[in-house]
């Protein structure tokens, strides 16, 4: 029970500054820190990672969409070739007033 109510959390490796040396104050401030806090590490990672700009991202998405549309068009170009006979229903001709004969 006494351990649960303890106010001193003990030494924390990431948050405790290094012990002061017996050097002059200018040398102590010039030396780099020996430990890095998790927040400093996270900030360094977030700043160091680059994300593409929104304009660049939009341009890439548009290019990908255009490529997909082009692939769809090419797919149908490969199925039909010039001179192929296509089946068309009679109702399409009669709709436009084309007489096909046979009293129809």
Automatic annotation (TrEMBL):
Residues 80-103 form the LRAT domain. GO terms for biological process: retinol metabolic process; vitamin A metabolic process. GO terms for cellular component: rough endoplasmic reticulum. Residues 62-71 have a biased composition (Acidic residues). Residues 1-74 are annotated as: Disordered. It comes from the Eukaryota. Residues 22-38 have a biased composition (Polar residues). InterPro entries: LRAT, LRAT_dom. GO terms for molecular function: phosphatidylcholine-retinol O-acyltransferase activity. Pfam families: LRAT. PANTHER family: LECITHIN RETINOL ACYLTRANSFERASE, LECITHIN RETINOL ACYLTRANSFERASE-LIKE-RELATED. This is LRAT domain-containing protein.
């Amino acid at each position: 029970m006494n351990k649960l109510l303890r106010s001193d959390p003990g030494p924390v490796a990431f948050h405790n500054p290094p012990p002061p040396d017996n050097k002059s104050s200018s040398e102590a401030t010039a030396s780099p820190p020996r430990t890095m806090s998790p927040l400093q590490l996270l900030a360094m990672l977030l700043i160091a990672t680059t994300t593409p700009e929104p304009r660049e991202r939009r341009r890439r998405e548009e290019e990908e969409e255009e490529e997909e549309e082009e692939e769809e068009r090419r797919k149908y170009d490969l199925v039909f070739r010039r001179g192929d006979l296509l089946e068309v229903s009679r109702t399409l001709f009669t709709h436009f007033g084309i007489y096909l004969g046979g009293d129809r």
